[in-house]
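TICKET #2291
ISSUE: user wants both folds in one file
ATTACHMENT 1:
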Amino acid sequence: MNSERRLSVGVLGAGLIGVDLAMKVERSAALDLHLVAGRTAESSGLKQAARLGLPVAGRGLSSLSELNEPLDVVFDATNAGSHAGHADALVPLGTLLVDLTPSRIGRMVVPTVNDADVAAHRDLNMVSCGGQASVPIVRAIARAHRIDYVEVVATAATLSVGRGTRLNLDEYVETTQDALREFTGVENVKALLNISPARPPATFRVAMSLVGEGLTHDSVRPLVADAAADVRAFAAGYTVTSCIVDDNMAFIAVEVTSAGDQIPAYAGNLDIINSASIRVAERCAVERRSKEVMEVAS
């Protein structure tokens, strides 16, 4: 995709997620970073972004909405409580909003499950890091077996959990559970997030426990392997570390390491939701280009 076809992008929020996300946008052939907007010009994250040579501004959403041309895509990397206001403000501009907070406002998207939905919605919710790591595998198993109960426990290092996530722990749990129910059809689900103070920092890990019918080693392992391979297409550090099936119970564990942009290797929680968000925005770029080609042809 040549540069004139790239989608113009803004990143709202300059915390742990926002700066890494901006660097991933910079590497994308389909996206063109126009601005990283933080709450204040003095924030440490915005200063870090400036040192990296990224375009920055310190007036939050106002900095994005006052640009000469409306942006095609804005990534919201702030917090769930602020997202509704951001969404309302961007509606008149026709901007696609990709929400990395667990706000539960927009259409939930997990790239390997329903990225075909992205063209039909203007506000896309990326669920949570635990949701991105667990939904593809649980869905794959639930499509082949009757599942009665799902429990998903994510563990993230304290150094990889920023202020926004800490403010939204309840929303994280609720949104992850909502996504598991919607995409798997299983009603009895439970999600938990552990924040580990261990040193050295713990690598992001998600453990999934399932109870159902017909679960066997031979039936579950291929489903898990295929689902994991699909996720690795955009999150290379996604690895299945355990898959145990016994007496119609399955336990699957995955670890996610970071690709190493502006976050350490153990912070796979940040890497997987950022990588999924980039994947979604790039899908939107492909959809837009296809639409333009069809319009020209007609």
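ATTACHMENT 2:
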Amino acid sequence: MDGVLVHEGQPVPGAAEFVRRLRESDKKFLVLTNNSIYTPRDLRARLRSAGLDVPEEAIWTSALATARFLEDQSPGGTAFVIGEAGLTTALHGIGYVLTDRNPDYVVLGETRTYSFSTITTAIRLIKDGARFIATNPDPVGPSPAGVLPACGAVAALMTKATGADPYFVGKPNPLMMRSALNRLEAHSETTAMIGDRMDTDVISGVEAGLRTVLVLSGVTRREEIERFPYRPSRVVDSVADLLDEI
């Protein structure tokens, strides 16, 4: 989503037409994001305010992928959650009970205001035996004032305090891509991943066996591609360069 369709809250040139052509051609697609703060309904509204008409069911977040993972691993479990509505709603949706009393899992997601006391509670629960899950490994996130510490940075703090490494569900974990393919009822041979980051989008697509398209409308610059030991299938300036292929 970020860097491909929108950038700092503004639509990427050509993104609205790209989405419109996808819908008119009846091609299946999902908009993916590692941000676990918002529900798909919230994100649909935010995209619409930017002029992008994306159906709610076509939005797949790291919170939804985390809920799918936990439902497969331990149905009907309990969790202590650090996060906002996107994550708590997803876990309630699979029947999880959110509690600070002997939870099966501590689940760390994104939030605008990480609380020291809440993090302390989570650390104690992990040391007491709760399994540690995190929605995504991103160390920082964007804001109008500059970067903010994100899930990956807080997870590192908690790992240092507990000695326990979290299991990250979101990109670049291929698990998020496989859950997305299952949701689309699609096959890797006929699916492409379009992203703006080499270290999350492109690598997750490569590891899931997808064709990959790196767009330069987000955080990755062309000269940075050579730093990575893997390559995207294609590099384009933005999704506007793909309009004639839909």
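RESOLUTION: both attachments delivered.
EXTRA DETAIL ON ATTACHMENT 2: The chain is about 35% helix and 15% strand.
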